[in-house]
Structures are given as C-alpha cells and as structure tokens.
Design brief:
CATH topology of the largest domain in chain B: Rossmann fold
Number of domains of chain B: 2
Oligomer: heterodimer
Strand content of chain B: 25-35%
Order of helices and strands of chain A: HHHHHHHHHHHH
CATH class of the largest domain in chain B: Alpha Beta
Number of strands of chain A: 0
CATH superfamily of the largest domain in chain B: P-loop containing nucleotide triphosphate hydrolases
Number of helices of chain B: 12
Structural class of chain A: mainly alpha
Largest interface: A-B, 21 and 32 residues
CATH architecture of the largest domain in chain B: 3-Layer(aba) Sandwich
Distance between the termini of chain A: 48 Å
Largest sheet of chain B: 6 strands, mixed
Mean pLDDT of chain B: 90
CATH class of chain A: Mainly Alpha
Number of strands of chain B: 14
Helix content of chain A: over 70%
Number of helices of chain A: 12
CATH architecture of chain A: Orthogonal Bundle
Strand order of the largest sheet of chain B: 6-7-8-3-9-10
Low-confidence stretches of chain B: 353-357
Strand content of chain A: under 5%
Shape of chain A: elongated
Number of domains of chain A: 1
Order of helices and strands of chain B: EEEHEEHEHHHEHEHEEHHHEHEEHE
CATH superfamily of chain A: MetI-like
Radius of gyration of chain B: 25 Å
Distance between the termini of chain B: 44 Å
Low-confidence stretches of chain A: none
CATH topology of chain A: MetI-like fold
Radius of gyration of chain A: 21 Å
Structural class of chain B: alpha/beta
Chain lengths: 226, 357
C-alpha cells in the first residue's frame, strides 16, 4: 500500500505534513472569514431589505449607498482587490501574508456577494406575511428577527452554501498571493514544479469539501422547509 | 341597543404617487361603523376598498383626513403608540398570510409575542383559540398541510389572540370554495355575536354581504356611493353599481338571456303573460302566488325563483308565466301590484286591446 502510494503520488507522499498544514490553513481561512462574511452579509442584506422602497424601514439614501457600494466591490476582480486592500490589511492585522493576511480581502471580497444573496433570499418572503406581522403590532426589530430571519432560513441556507463554496474557491486564489493553504500548495508544487500528482490530489480534496458543504446546506434547507 | 361608533372615517383621502401619475385610491370617504355590528364594504377590484380597510389599522397612512378607532385618532399617533393600538385590531387576509415555517400552534403564539404572558398562559390561550376555531387537533401541523378553510381558521385564531375589539377581513373568503366560505362566514358571525367583536368585511361578493352583514357600503372609484342597512340597500338599490352587484347574485336576470335566445321555455300560448315579480317587503310571507292562482283562477308556472332572507326579512323575486282567461290574468297582475309587488311584464301574449300594464 505504502509502496503503491509512493509510486502513484511520489511528490505528495514526501510532503504529507505540509499537505495537512495547508488543508488546515484552508479550513481556517474558510471558517474565520466565513464567520465574518455571514455576520456582515446578513447585516447588510437585512439593511437592504428593510430600507428598500416599500420596506419596513424605508430609507432611500441608506439603500442607495449600500446598493452602490456592493456593486462597486463586486465589480473589482478578487486578485486586484487583494492588492488594493494591502494597506488596509496591514493596518488591521499587521501583516499581509499567511492566513491572517488573507482574512481581510476574503471578507471584503465575499461580503458584497453574500449580502446580495441574503437580499434575494429574504425578498422571497411573502409580502403578505410581513403585512400580517405589521397588523399584529410587531415593530421592525421583531419583524427582522421573528419573520425575516426565521422564515428566510431555507433560502438563507442555500445562499450560505453557495457563498461558502465561493469562499473556498477564493481561498485558493488568495493562496496564490501568499496566503498559504491548499491553493498555495497546489501552485507552488503542482504548477510551478510540475508535480501533477499534487495538483490532482489538491483538486480532489477541494471537490470533497465542496460536496460536504453542499450536502450540509441542502440538509439544513430541507429540514427547515415545511 | 344603543348605537355607538367604534370606527370613524372623516374625509379620508389616500393617494398613491408614482413617477408619472397620481392614483387616488380613496377620495373623501366619511363613514361610521357601529360597535358590535358586521359592516360590509363591497366593490369591484380597484374600487379602493382594500386601501380603505388598511387605513383602519394604518397599514396605509391616509394622505389626509382622520381615522378614529374606539375613541383614539390613529392617524395622529406615533409608531410606538400605533403598534400598541394595532394589537386591538385583528386582521385576516385573502391569502391567509400564515408563517410557513411555523406550526399552527406557533403561528397563533407568535401574535402573543411581547404580550407579557407567561409560557403556560400563552399555551393555554393558544389552545383555547384553536379550540374556538375548531382546529385543536391540527396544532402541530404546518400551514402547507392545511386546506384553505383551515388556514383561514388559523388566521382567525391568530387575529383573536390579543382580544381585539375589531376584526378586519380583507377578502377573507375570496380564495375559498362556496362551502368553506359559508363555514368561515358562520365563524365570523359567531365571534361577532359571542365575543362582541365588530367585524369589517371587504368583499366583491354580494353573497358575503347578504349572508352576514348588518350594514353595507358600496364603493366605486375610491368613493362610497351607497350606504345603509343591508335590507334596504337590497330592497331598493339606488346606484347602478349596486343593482349590478345584486343582479350578479340573483338568477332572475337569466330570463332576459332566455328571451333573447328565444328559448322554447319562454314561448307563450295565446293569452299568457311572462312577468317578473319582485318582493320588496314582508308581504312575501303571504302565500301570494298560490292565493292569486286560486282567487283569480289563473295558472301560474314558476320558471325561476330567487328568494332570500336578509336581516330576517324575505327579499327577492320570481319569474312566472300566468295563463288562463285574459281578464283574469290582468286582474291577477293588478292585484299583485296592489299588494306592493313590483310586476314587470317581460312578454305578453294577451290580445293587444286588453293590455293593462
């Protein structure tokens, strides 16, 4: 078995500890930036929903500001965003490389995408349900927590799944500019040094991650749909 | 019973402004709704009735004018005070608007959120409410597992949770089949009688008005064009739109189609008269047709009948072919007119010289 693996994956087998470290780095990047993205994305997505025309806290100026900001950030390619954000990254985490250095661009690059997803997810909620809540005498805060974020769970689960998979892809890209993780591992050995076995295995691991995220997301969405 | 106003509109106006034009959904409506009654507002879609009813709980803010509910001018309140007042006004909707992710029980319990009731008291209250609307055994079902009528019952239980004084029904039966509609209307009448809740019903179906309402307002183009107690409005509608609504619910007007199509059923023998009789007062309790038939020795062939009991008094009409000796037919028709029946001769096969209309 050992021999077979050594024969099939000669370059990987001698770098197992490094490989495991890069898997852990990737998971860290996804988990930490994912947490921030989820928080800020929900916050901004809810802000968009409640401040838009006909929303429960209609505020045209606020809506327009967030709407435009999202559009601007979404139109900057991620690789360029990383370099644009270097000064900010250094300011916040005092480094621009490694897992820490990757968090800031990953969060800022993904929040606008997720906020849009949240907005779309929450706008699926029947307007009549919101009207009924208002008629019951509920205030905006109660409506956000008891209706939007509760009735929106299935759609939010789907949005989170898509965003998490997206984020995983971006960590690989961040890897290319010094963030570490599986992307970095694959590029450093697989691409730059023609160690194709490393490229293949890294890809398979990433596919597995995507599958796990998708299955978990589907499960939550299904469980919360009645 | 002492009449006491519970809902009052004073010169209410509501405009919707879009980029290119202004829509006046409600133009200058002044109305009073009495405590404890069932008040119907009828109109075709776009007449402004839904907007008007939404002005009662300020889901739509009036452009001008006042709304006073139970002595409080809602149109002058701030958001927080308004939310407090809204708890005293229940509302149900055409599409039920239940929360799909919550069970029947939780849907009703949600209305008690922030009411300060303990968990046990909330549970007890929800159970009582579900019992009242006859859905106790479905407490753990989700809305998607219920029929339309059951969903509306849950919505009613939810609307009653905060012991409201007023229940607003926005086309509450329009998405339901006739049998379910009847059951829901029965429930509305029951809660009106038993709990003393004033019910405001918005509908485009005259049958709903006929079945449960005490007073009715007819709306057209954002205005109330006719208003009064249901019996008088049915007995002598003033405006064309009111007549249209009444005609829709009655099958009497079908006779005109039959005459138009020259259906064999309206072919008359010589000397016969086809007439529509309309009853406008309580005389219908007398066996008029039968007594006319005996007294004047005429044959009465009833083609259609459409009689209804509205607010406890009969109203409606019949389409009859009268046959027999011409003079007798004529006297019979005159007798009916004398009795206060409106007689409309639709076709006449009496010899021309003897026609008396």
């Amino acid at each position: 078995m050992q021999d077979l693996l050594l024969k099939l994956l000669p370059n990987l087998m001698v770098r197992i500890p490094e490989f495991i470290d890069s898997i852990i780095d990737t998971l860290k990047m996804v988990a930490i930036s994912g947490g921030f993205v989820f928080l800020f994305g929900i916050l901004i997505g809810v802000t968009l929903i409640v401040t838009r025309d006909g929303g429960i806290l209609e505020q045209r100026a606020v809506f327009q500001a967030f709407d435009k900001l999202i559009n601007i950030f979404r139109s900057v390619p991620f690789v360029i965003l990383i370099s644009l954000l270097l000064p900010l990254t250094r300011l916040i985490v005092h480094t621009s490389i490694g897992v820490k250095g990757a968090i800031v661009p990953l969060v800022i690059g993904t929040v606008p995408f997720f906020a849009r997803q949240v907005e779309a997810a929450l706008s699926e909620i029947d307007k009549g349900v919101i009207e009924a809540a208002k008629a019951m005498g509920m205030g905006p805060v109660t409506i956000i927590f008891k209706i939007y974020l509760r009735e929106g769970i299935p759609a939010l689960a789907r949005a989170t799944t898509i965003t998490a998979i997206n984020l995983l892809g971006l960590t690989a890209m961040a890897g290319a500019v010094g963030a570490g993780g599986l992307g970095d591992f694959a590029i450093r050995y697989g691409h730059n040094r023609y160690m194709t076995d490393i490229t293949w295995v890294t890809t398979i691991v990433l596919i597995l991650f995507v599958c796990v995220i998708q299955v978990a997301g589907n499960f939550i969405a299904k469980r919360s749909t009645h | 019973m002492i009449m006491e106003t519970i809902i009052e509109f004073q010169n209410l106006k509501k405009k919707f402004e879009t980029k290119d034009h202004v829509v006046e959904a409600v133009r200058d409506v002044s109305l009073r709704i009495q405590r404890g009654e069932i008040y119907g507002i009828i109109g075709f879609s776009g007449a402004g009735k839904s907007t008007l009813v939404r002005c009662i709980n300020m889901l739509e803010k009036p452009s001008s004018g006042k709304v006073i509910v139970d002595g409080v001018e809602l149109s002058a309140l701030g958001e927080k005070a308004l939310r407090h007042e809204r708890k005293k006004i229940g509302m149900i909707f055409q599409q039920f608007n239940l929360m799909p992710s919550r069970t029947v029980f939780d849907n009703v319990a949600l209305a008690l959120h922030g009411s300060g009731l303990s968990k046990e008291k909330t549970e007890k209250k929800v159970e009582q409410l579900l019992e009242y609307v006859g859905l106790s055994e479905r407490a753990n079902s989700y809305p998607s597992q219920l029929s339309g009528g059951q969903k509306q019952r849950v919505a009613i239980a939810r609307a009653l949770a905060n012991d409201p004084k007023v229940l607003l029904c926005d086309e509450a039966t329009s998405a339901l089949d006739p049998q379910t509609t009847r059951a829901i209307l029965e429930l509305l009448r029951r809660l009106n009688k038993e709990l003393g809740i004033t019910v405001v019903v918005i509908t485009h179906e005259m049958n709903v008005i006929k079945r449960i309402c005490d007073h009715v307002a007819v709306m057209e183009n954002g205005e109330v064009v006719e208003e009064g107690d249901v019996f008088s409005v049915f007995a002598s509608p003033q405006k064309q739109i009111t007549k249209d609504f009444i005609n829709i619910t009655s099958n009497l007007t079908e006779i005109y189609d039959l005459v138009e199509r020259k259906d064999p059923i309206v072919d008359l023998q010589s000397g016969e008269v086809l007439a529509m009789l309309k009853f406008r007062n309580a005389t219908v309790s007398e066996p008029l047709i039968s007594s006319v038939s005996k007294e004047f020795d005429v044959v009465c062939n009833i083609l259609f009948g459409d009689l209804d009991i509205i607010s406890g008094a009969p109203i409606g009409g019949t389409v009859v072919i009268f046959g027999g000796e011409e003079e007798k037919v004529t006297s019979a028709l005159n007798h009916l007119t004398d009795k206060g029946i409106s007689v409309e001769v639709i076709r006449d096969a009496r010899s021309a010289s003897k026609i008396i209309a």
